[in-house]
Specification:
This protein is 68% helix and 10% strand. It folds into two domains: 3-213, no CATH class; 281-411, 2-Layer Sandwich (Heat Shock Protein 90), CATH 3.30.565. It is an alpha+beta fold.
């Protein structure tokens, strides 16, 4: 293996992993990128030096790319798998086109002399051009990378085609076979890959349309429920407003006659009535609205006041993760909420660069939120965030802080 081979291997590794690096806009972690570039270069060089099977190199390379992608993006496995296959197939397409062009100007086999230099350099140039175009297509596309049976099928077929492609490359460079049949096989493999990636993007577009419709339905259903809740509350509060004069008269009479216990019981009775008929405020977050509607009766039964504070920015968690955290917290808070004055729960989130903060609190004398730490930390760690649990001023407090990276922003 020559110095030229080593340089090409470095550029290949840098192209593969640099693509991942820029897709996620990681501003830090250059040391990790360099380590993986060196590892990938070492693996490729070992395979080249000992003439190991192309299939082995293909699997090891893709595994290395996936591990790096997973290390910097743990929140979406499907996205990591897709990007791994995309990068490898961009390289495969570049190699195929380069071999076809090289075959025009040089005689086969072209793994030595000027033909080899021409093929290797042209492949890297084509890879950089196609990767650049792919990068901008991905950044402009609203891809959710949702795990569905169709997506899994597409990714599985892509993997099989990659193995078949690797077998063809081995025949070309190790068995000196580059006839019309091999060329046709390579051509059809690349055509199938293009069709599969197109199908993938179309599937994601359809999935986005479906999500938008579902969100719209949820929003409409929530608004209907909110209106019903508020109409019912307004009706009862109107009646209660009419009766309030008589209630105060009774309370005044009890106090004058020193029937303090009866007066307190009357106040407590009507306080409970008021608690049952609170107006529901739309939080402008479908996930939070749905959960509050679901838990509304439990809040009322347990005499718990709920306070919501947001800055109207997006929650930097997926709906699924946000819902799971709220479920865990609310179930725990309702069971453990205590106060001599007023039982309360606070949910607030806000964005203050460079962080997004989700704060969850409830009135409690003793701290018991630690029991939720492991379950919530598994979610938070996927966003490279951190959490803090504390108990201050008779309140159990959970704060989740997530760094706002460019990969969370939509172009």
């Amino acid at each position: 293996m020559s110095t030229f081979d080593l340089i090409i291997n470095i550029f290949e590794s840098l192209g593969y992993l640099g693509f991942i690096y820029y897709i996620f806009h990681i501003k830090k972690g250059l040391s990790i990128l360099i380590i993986f570039v060196l590892l990938k270069t070492t693996i490729t060089s070992i395979h080249n030096y000992f003439l190991l099977p192309e299939l082995s190199l293909s699997i090891c390379s893709q595994l290395m790319i996936f591990l790096y992608a997973y290390l910097i993006n743990r929140s979406n496995i499907v996205q990591n798998v897709f990007l791994t296959f995309l990068i490898y197939n961009i390289d495969s397409f570049s190699i195929t086109v380069s071999m076809m062009i090289t075959d025009i100007f040089f005689l086969f086999p072209f793994y030595q002399g000027n033909s080899y230099y021409f093929l290797a350099i042209l492949t890297r140039i084509l890879f950089m051009i196609i990767a650049y175009l792919a990068y901008h297509i991905i950044k402009k596309s609203a891809i959710t990378f949702t795990k569905t049976n169709k997506i899994i099928s597409i990714l599985s077929i892509l993997f099989i085609l990659e193995l078949l492609y690797s077998s063809c490359i081995e025949l070309i460079f190790y068995n000196n076979i580059f006839d019309i049949y091999i060329k046709l096989i390579l051509f059809f493999i690349n055509i199938l890959v293009v069709i599969l990636f197109y199908t993938f993007f179309e599937s994601q577009r359809e999935q986005n349309i479906l999500f938008e419709l579902q969100e719209k339905n949820i929003r409409n259903e929530n608004q209907i429920k909110i209106n019903q809740i508020n109409e019912e509350s307004i009706k009862h509060l109107t009646i209660w407003k009419h009766d309030i004069t008589y209630v105060f008269t009774y309370i005044e009479s009890y106090i004058k006659n020193q029937k303090y216990d009866t007066a307190l019981n009357t106040i407590s009775l009507y306080r409970d009535i008021l608690n049952n008929y609170n107006l529901f405020k739309n939080t402008n977050n479908d996930t939070l609205n749905s959960l509050l509607i679901e838990y509304l009766e439990q809040f009322s039964q347990n005499n718990i006041y709920i306070y919501i504070t947001t800055d109207q920015n997006e929650v930097l968690l997926s709906s699924q993760h946000y819902q799971k955290i709220l479920y865990l917290f609310l179930n725990h808070a309702i069971q453990n909420c205590h106060s001599d004055y007023q039982k309360s729960i606070w949910v607030s989130y806000y964005t203050k660069l460079p962080y997004f903060t989700l704060s969850l609190e409830y009135t409690s004398v003793n701290s018991s939120l630690q029991i939720l730490y492991d379950d919530i930390d598994q979610i938070v760690s996927q966003y490279e965030g951190f959490m803090k649990i504390s108990n201050k001023n008779d309140k159990d407090i959970l704060r989740i802080i997530i760094p706002i990276q460019e990969n969370y922003e939509h172009d």
